[in-house]
Amino acid sequence: QTTIRIVNIRANASGLGVSGSLVPSQVIAFLAASPSQSLPLSFPQQTVGYVQPGLSFDLRNCNNTASASTSFAQCVGENSSGDRNLINGTNGTMQFAVRFTEGFQTAFKPQLASGQNPSVPGVTYHSESGFLKTPQIPNSVGGADSATRLVARFTNVPTGARVFVTTGPSIGSSTGFHAVLTRSPDAVPATATLFCPLTASSGLASAEIPVVNGTAIAVWEVTETNAAALEAAVFGVAIAYTPDAPNRLPGLGLASVSGNFGPFYAAGSDAGTMSASSPIPRFIDSPQRVDAFRIDSCVTNLLFPFVTNQSGFDTGIAIANTSRDPFGVTQRPQTGSCTVSYYGASTAGPAPPPQTTSSAVEPGSTMTFVLSSGGSHGITAVPGFQGYLIIRCDFRYAHGFAFITDGVIGSARVAEGYLGLVMDSGVATRGSTSESLSQ
Fold first, then answer.
1. DSSP for 58-87, written as a single string
2. Which residue from 269, 328, 345, 355 puts its CA 20 to 30 A from 25's CA?
3. The whole model's pTM is what?
4. DSSP character at residue 241
5. Kind plus residue range of the DSSP H or E element containing 13
């Protein structure tokens, strides 16, 4: 009896695609002999594999406990001061993490398994290389050029923002899984240490990935896996920029990140066919994209839903710049102007055009004006106006108060005050509570 083994057969799984039903797509192998009568075959057609999604990708908190949503303010630096300074130092804070999860238990593979080189016929090795006849790799009778690679691509990174990632698995990765940050063919040396503020664990080795034209790419190569477990690979991410105005403020915008196996090629390219030069393994470019982080401008938008200078009434407005406070240095004091936009009409015609303060509102100061007579910071009168106001201030933590009365204090019959409604959310404001005081 003679046993013939044909090893390291590779199929273009992307050409078959993932089944839309519960029955997965099948990889079929056909075996034939020539002439056919020289070797009769009882079962010339065999199912040798199934096509399943190999990867899911998402964003997590730095301790991998929940989904992450990260927003920053343009005028407040990130990892740029104190003992968490990646601009001039080597220690930083992870704001979030990226997570790659196996679609099936052997989706992540090392280049070689333990004891595989050279391989023993008949033994199954959970590696990208499969069977190795000779110890030379890569390309030793179909051996792999690399292990499974996990790629995170950051796109639309705002100008001035720097991206750091852990060089190995971060908090929440599966036990027994390991990978290294690589720039082919070498591992990337660690140049910084990242800490997760949600845990008391020690820092993790990390390195900066360069941002070129708004894009940064991190590639981790798998070195150890557990073929009996469905594994998750988590890598910490830190964003750093300085808020020094006016020339070093970061750009504004929403950055995204996508996860993919690597190396990847465009669908339909020659990488989907047999090749003596293309790397093994290789994948189609099928990124799973999520929002990574955003940098918002330092503004506050306030709504005053009703103001009037008609029928004997007048309205006074006060805007306080509360960016100066007793809560420490984390909330950087900011100076900026305010623009008052009028929506409604006046007794003399349509609503007046917007007005911008001629002098900036300093931290800890208050701008005041009255519809009938104007007020501080260059705001002029708009007599006879009635409607609503939206006031946009170029600093965070602006808060406003409106007071409507039909006469001077002491002789007024009707008077009411209310807080301006804060129209922003997240990092742009302290809150959005409104109240009313009436007499």
1. EEE-TTSSSB--EEEETTS-BSEETTEESS
2. 269
3. 0.81
4. B
5. helix 13-16
Query: Is the CB of residue 249 less than 8 Å from the CB of residue 74?
Result: yes
pLDDT given at position 324: 85
The tokens of 370 are what?
Answer: 């009255």
pLDDT in tens, 160-195: 999 999 999 999 999 999 999 999 778 999 999 999
Rounded to whole angstroms, how far apart are CA atoms 241 and 252?
12
CA dist 244 and 367 (Å) reads: 25
Contact (Cβ atoms closer than 8 angstroms) between residue 403 and residue 308: no
Banded pLDDT at 348 (limits 50, 70, 90): confident
Give the CA distances from residue 249 to residues 35, 74, 259, 295, 427, in Å, rounded to whole numbers and listed in that order.
Answer: 75, 7, 29, 11, 17
DSSP 202: P
Q: Tell me the HSE value of 135 on the side-chain side, using a 13 A CA sphere.
A: 3
Of 176 and 431, the structure prediction assigns the larger pLDDT to 176
At 90, the pLDDT band (50, 70, 90 cuts) reads: very high
The mean pLDDT value for 396-406 works out to: 93
Question: What is the rounded distance in angstroms from the CA atom of residue 138 to the CA atom of residue 127?
Answer: 13
User: Do residues 62 and 95 make contact, with C-beta atoms less than 8 angstroms apart?
Assistant: yes
Place of tokens 């894009």: 215
Torsion on CA atoms 168, 171, 174, 176, rounded to nearest 10: 50
List the one residue out of 8, 19, 7 whose CA is nearest residue 51: 19
φ, ψ for residue 80, nearest 5 deg: -130, 10
Q: DSSP letters of 22-58?
A: SS-EEEEEE---SSGGGS--S--EEEEEEE---EEEE
Give the residue-averaged pLDDT of 9-13. 86
Q: State the Cα–Cα distance between residues 47 and 122, nearest whole angstrom.
A: 18
The number of beta carbons lying within 10 Å of the beta carbon of residue 317 is: 22
> What token pair was written down for 353?
């055009």
With beta carbons less than 8 A apart as the criterion, state whether 154 and 200 touch. Answer: no
Greatest extent of the chain over all pairs of C-alpha atoms, in Å: 116
Residue 386 sits at φ, ψ, to 5 deg, of -145, 135
Asked if 227 contacts 105 with a C-beta cutoff of 8 angstroms, the reply is yes
Retrieve residue 194's tokens.
């990242």
